[in-house]
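The records we work with from here on pair a chain with its fold. These numbers are not coordinates but entries in a learned vocabulary of local backbone shapes. To see the layout at work, look at the sequence and tokens printed below.

. . .
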Amino acid sequence: MSRLTRSLACAALILLLAGCASPVRDAIQVSGNQQFTLRPGERATLPGQSSLRYTGVANDSRCPPTVQCVWAGDAEVKLVFEQAGKDADVVLHSANPAPQPMGPWSLTLVGLERGAAPAATLRLENGEGGGG
């Protein structure tokens, strides 16, 4: 029994330490015309009781930094925009970082780190045209 208890305690400690390796911050406050960075699972609180949650990256075909490629590739940054109790999926592309209309704002992908859970740097601008 003591061996089982030690094994369970060790497993619990490993899980606890793994959870500490990449902490998810509380929601950050973002206003219009602001650049900010989110990691997968993090949320930004927007004006007007809206929020934006970064769910992750899909279809990452970007060229590795140490390789010379004919095409730079693309990665889909997946987010969920929540406003007035309704969710809307938002997908931004690293190959075409054009502003994406999102409610009364526009959202632009400014940068995307590499790795298993890359941080995304975004810019929220007032107005669908991205004014500022």
In short: The chain has one helix and nine strands. Residues 10-22 have pLDDT under 50 and may be disordered.
